[in-house]
Specification:
heterodimer; A: alpha+beta; Enolase-like, domain 1; 3 domains; globular; B: alpha+beta; Aldehyde Oxidoreductase, domain 4; 7-stranded mixed β-sheet; 5-stranded mixed β-sheet; 28 strands; binds flavin-adenine dinucleotide
């Protein structure tokens, strides 16, 4: 690891201020992605501004069906939140299966979506839940937020402060883990909300998380496992690697979608 | 007694390991210690045009930047392979030059080109990134097919067509004739996937040069510190043997990968002399993937012929083996004398012929890895047996039973002479424990749940206790493969046992002590095992090939024999009796039925005070022995795997795994069971999960845990481990060895179960979910599960 300057922010505005004074600084949340990258010398920021202790970035509030999750809230906190589980158990279950206990107790929702790993779980959930990503200066709809592989709509140095969404009437996440990394080789989040069904898919596509329009249309017609028969995504647009080719991943999208639907219906 | 042979005593060494107090090479901190960071090739094959070090030399903390020209200029020799194998035509193997720091060419991604020595690890790494090497990239041969293709790039000038040797064993004509007359011939193309060893402790070295004494000390992660010293002295000319001390402290796993001497140890020793600083290097995990010798990587065509009654008449095997870019220390022996010699399996096969073509590729060197040749042989034999049974419509267990070797000793057609065993006994035990008979009902029940269930068997045999020195010498080995021991009884009766074996996790401090405790009737706690230091133990050949039990312990037994003779003489002299009347037990040396008795410690004291010893007897109580085995030992067993497959995703779950092994006499059943568990987990890893993949340009694709799948606890079931042991007849305690069996027998059992479940025999390891799913699509056995 290269040497660097470490700063600890106690709130969001201090974090933004600290970062603006650095040469090539980065926010540090749980460090579960950034620190491994630094250890292998793939990332070498001049400064780290630690937002994990910023009080206004942490915690979960639920009022009615409206949910707000602070960006620095850990996966373990999302998994264990009783109020959230009452209105949206699917996101709690999803968070409970990210990585291992150490990862879940350090890694954060803000870090996960800012990073937008094409195999990360949260992006599928954000798309399916129609979430809004709030930053210090604006609000970005999930559909606009996830731009491509490791790419988001965030400006350089733009801090995510929280995530908001309306809990769907029903939802479930089915994940087929990559055997090595245990990230998603294919993860499908199905949410049935007031405006219809939304299906977010992660891990499978060569371009990162996406909404599966054909699957949404089929489930809007009839929310049942059978409605998905014969419906899939284009295998040619799916990722091919040593763990499986596009045909296999397209199959996983269908199978995981069916399993998610089966879990809620 | 409760601490002796056969007692499941807890491991003495575990207190320090599980409380974090083990002392590993990276824990060693020398005064004046500097750090090495290697500049490694990003290309799989390239000429080195120039190395620009001036920017790195200016950087903070940098002590020296050294390259291959300086290394060879100082007379440091090339790395060697120590086992000479000749081709069919009698020509010697084509060993290409391997300099610890590459000089003219780089031949794999990770090949070391230069080294930076600096005050801190961070400074060394930063400077290493600033060393500018200019390359002229060359075409790449990243796998066997590419290396052997017409017009392939040549990796070493002295290896035309990238061929190292084209070797054979057995009777080709007799085998061809047998196959021509066979009633049924089963033919298969089989690959054995390339594995990265993944020891938990990465390789590490700390080298110190003392210029006042002109003496070197190397701390190193080694399975065989004496062999390391020998090779570093005799071949690499780093220092003469008496001026080099090699210490391997606690070693955290090796699986073979820590047998070999690597460039990094050589460079650290040399750099410590150049810089007059202690030089330390510890691999990062990425470096482990890039540079630790990999295992396996064979492609094989095999044909097995049967008569009308299902008796094997002949077996023909043609294998191509990938050696990587250079010949590692024992590489040549692995696909030859550790592989082809096991192709008779557990069966009476009248004609066998095996050809092995070894080739270079632009990948990291390949050498022995847990099982070393025997897993590859067992996979070929047991996949063919299973397939043949299915093709001939026979029960796979009955086909094996009909062909088992039943009379011992049994001379195979491929050198080995099996001394003992009861192969049917192990198979019967495994079938019972697995409820083989009840499988059909379990398969039907699984089908109701939408799952594909399959069962698979493998009856492996392997050769441990490498090896009779004269025999291996005649086959090309550059060393003898005996073991040494010294047993020192102290004046107070406590005992130190010095052994040339060296544990890298096997629990020698416990099992070796158990043998001596039983022998002399003394408490386990009064015995200390000393190993891993060339200044303490005179010589040894180290730990690999499951040799520490059959060979290492046999040397200890031999030394104990000599100690016992002297103990009896001293006691007989003091008690005024005949030495033969004495019994040694319960910390006493006594004449049963009399009051003539001495405490064990009194004999020790008498030996050292020397006030009253028999005439002409030297004082002291210490004896050494070298034990050279008369034969290999032959552990065998029957493994049965039962799997369930999710037809929607192709994911395989191993729902039951039964092992019935014949390990001969067992010293500590708990430790043996642990070895079986670890070995099977490793074999399951090979069968389902692990593969070191290089792309066509020679870049490693699975070079981190993001892509290289290690087995996890949830990937394996709770194993059923049974024993049906027969005594080995060729060593004093009857031990066969157990360190590799699990990894040898499990891959074919798992693949046989999967192919049974999906009714498609065409699947290669690792049988990933994607491959299994694709095979299900082909076989059309997919059930309406969704
Ligand atoms: C062993 C292991 C297994 C894992 N398994 C999974 C898995 O199964 N599924 C999965 O989805 N993920 C997995 N992860 C990743 C994990 O979920 C991480 O928590 C996540 O990727 C990043 O979150 P973090 O808080 O650790 O972010 P960090 O590593 O601290 O930061 C990541 C990036 O986000 C930026 N960032 C952080 N917070 C903010 C913010 N508030 N605003 C703007 N930018 C910000 C940082 O500057 C950095 O660029 C795994 C990680 C590990 C180490």
């Amino acid at each position: 690891m290269h040497s660097l300057n470490y700063h600890k922010a106690s709130n969001a505005s201090e974090a933004a201020r600290l970062l603006s004074g650095t040469e090539d600084g980065k926010f540090l949340a749980g460090g579960q992605t950034l620190i491994p990258a630094m250890k292998t010398r793939l990332a070498a920021p001049s400064d780290l501004v630690d937002v994990s202790g910023a009080a206004d970035l942490r915690g979960i509030t639920v009022s009615g069906r409206e949910v707000r999750i602070g960006a620095a809230t850990t996966h373990a906190e999302v998994a264990a939140d009783d109020a959230l589980r009452k209105v949206c158990p699917s996101i709690c279950d999803m968070a409970a299966n990210i990585g291992d206990p150490a990862v879940r107790h350090r890694g954060t929702i803000g870090g996960s979506i800012a990073n937008n790993d094409p195999a990360a779980d949260y992006p599928a959930a954000m798309l399916a839940l129609g979430a809004t990503i709030k930053t210090a200066s604006r609000e970005i709809a999930a559909d606009e937020f996830f731009v491509g592989l490791f790419e988001t709509a965030l400006e350089d140095d733009e801090l995510i402060t929280s995530i908001g969404f309306t809990a769907p009437a029903a939802g479930a996440y089915a994940k087929f883990p990559n055997p090595a990394s245990r990230y998603a080789m294919c993860g499908v989040f199905v949410a049935r909300g007031d405006d219809g069904v939304r299906v977010g898919v992660t891990g499978a596509s060569a371009d990162g998380a996406f909404r599966a329009g054909d699957l949404e249309a089929a489930l809007d017609g009839a929310f049942s496992v059978d409605a998905l028969d014969g419906i899939s995504v284009n295998a040619e647009e799916m990722l091919s690697d040593i763990h499986g080719d596009g045909v296999y991943r397209a199959n996983l999208v269908s199978v995981m979608a069916k399993r998610a639907v089966a879990a809620v219906s | 007694m409760s601490e002796g042979i056969g007692a499941p005593v807890k491991r003495k060494e575990d207190k320090r390991f599980i409380t974090g107090k083990g002392k590993y090479t990276d824990d060693i901190r020398m005064e004046n210690q500097a750090y090495a960071a290697f500049v490694r090739s990003p290309h799989a094959h390239a000429e080195i045009k120039g190395i620009e070090t001036s920017a790195a030399e200016e950087m903070s903390g940098v002590i020296a930047v050294l390259d291959g020209a300086q290394l060879t200029g100082d007379g440091i020799g090339n790395l060697i392979c120590g086992w000479a194998i000749s081709s069919k035509d009698g020509s010697p193997m084509n060993m290409g030059a391997w300099s610890a720091l590459a000089t003219e060419k780089v031949r794999y991604v990770g090949d070391a080109v230069a080294v930076v020595i600096a005050e801190s690890k961070d400074e060394a790494q930063a400077a290493a990134e600033s060393v500018e090497v200019s390359y002229n990239e060359l075409p790449v041969a990243a796998n066997i097919a590419a290396a052997l293709a017409d017009g392939a790039t040549e990796i070493h000038d002295n290896a035309p067509g990238n061929v190292i040797y084209d070797w054979e064993l057995g009777d080709g004509d007799a085998t061809d004739a047998a196959l021509a007359g066979a009633a049924h011939v089963t033919e298969m193309d089989i690959s054995n996937n390339r594995l990265a060893p993944n020891a938990m402790e990465p390789r590490s070295a700390v080298a110190t040069y003392d210029d006042a004494e002109d003496h070197y000390t190397l701390y190193s992660t080694s399975q065989n510190p004496h062999v390391a010293r020998l090779v570093l002295s005799a071949f690499y000319q780093v220092a003469p043997e008496h001026k080099l001390r090699v210490i391997a402290p606690d070693v955290g796993g090796g699986f073979g990968s820590k047998i070999y001497i690597y460039p990094e140890e050589i460079v650290c020793l040399w750099a410590s002399m150049k810089t007059r600083r202690s030089v330390k290097w510890t691999a990062e995990r990425t470096e482990s993937f890039l540079t630790d010798a990999h295992g396996r990587d064979h492609v094989t065509k095999a044909r097995m012929g049967f008569d009308a009654d299902g008796r094997i008449v002949g077996f023909k095997v043609s294998t191509k083996a990938n050696f990587g870019a250079y010949m590692s220390l024992f590489s040549s022996a692995v696909p030859t004398y550790l592989y082809a010699t096991l192709l008779s399996g557990t069966y009476d096969i009248p004609a066998i012929h095996c050809e092995v073509l070894a080739c270079y590729t632009n990948t990291v060197p390949v050498d022995a890895y847990r099982g070393a040749g025997r897993p590859e042989a067992s996979f070929v034999v047991e996949r063919l047996m299973e397939t043949a049974a299915r093709e001939m419509g026979k029960d796979p267990a009955e086909l094996r039973r009909a062909n088992f070797v039943k009379d011992f000793p049994y001379q195979t057609q491929v050198i080995m002479n099996y001394d003992s065993g009861d192969f049917e006994g192990n198979m019967n035990q495994a079938m019972e424990a697995a409820d083989w008979a009840g499988f059909a009902a379990r398969k039907a029940e699984a089908a109701n749940r939408g799952r594909l269930r399959g069962i698979g068997m493998a009856c492996y045999i392997e050769a441990c206790g490498i090896a009779p020195s004269a025999a291996v010498g005649s086959l090309g080995a550059g060393v003898g493969l005996w073991e040494s021991a010294e047993v020192r009884v102290n004046p107070v009766g406590t005992i130190e046992v010095l052994t040339g074996s060296h544990s890298h996790g096997q629990g020698h401090e416990t099992t070796f002590a158990q043998v001596v405790a039983e022998r002399f009737g003394v408490p386990l706690d009064s015995i200390q095992i000393v190993h891993g230091d060339t200044d303490k133990v005179q010589f040894g050949m180290g730990t690999y090939g499951s040799r520490s039990g059959p060979v290492g312990i046999s040397a200890i037994v031999k030394a104990c024999d000599k100690v016992e003779v002297k103990v009896r003489k001293i006691a007989a002299h003091l008690l005024e009796c005949n030495p033969d009347e004495l019994v040694i037990e319960d910390s006493q040396v006594k004449v049963p039925g009399t009051n003539k008795a001495l405490g064990w410690h009194e004999v020790g004291l008498a030996a050292y005070t020397a006030h009253n010893l028999p005439a002409d007897m030297e004082p002291g109580l210490k004896e050494g022995a070298f034990y050279d085995p008369e034969n290999f030992t032959f552990p065998m067993g029957c493994f049965i795997a039962e799997v369930e497959i999710d037809p929607g995703t192709g994911k395989t779950d191993i729902v039951k795994f039964v092992a019935s092994d014949d390990f001969g006499v067992i010293i500590n059943p708990m430790i043996v069971e642990g070895q079986v568990h670890g070995g099977i987990a490793q074999g399951v890893g090979q069968a389902l999960l692990e593969e070191m993949v290089y792309d066509e340009s020679g870049q490693p694709v699975s070079g981190s845990y993001m892509d290289y799948t290690m087995p996890r606890a949830e990937d394996v079931p709770s194993f059923v481990v049974e024993h049906h042991n027969t005594r080995c007849t060729t060593n004093p305690l009857g031990i066969k060895g157990c360190g590799e069996a699990g990894a040898i027998g499990s891959p074919p059992a798992v693949i046989n179960a999967i192919t049974d479940a999906i009714d498609n025999n065409d699947i290669s390891m690792p049988a990933t979910s994607a491959k299994v799913w694709a095979a299900i699509q082909v076989s059309g056995t997919r059930m309406a599960a969704e």
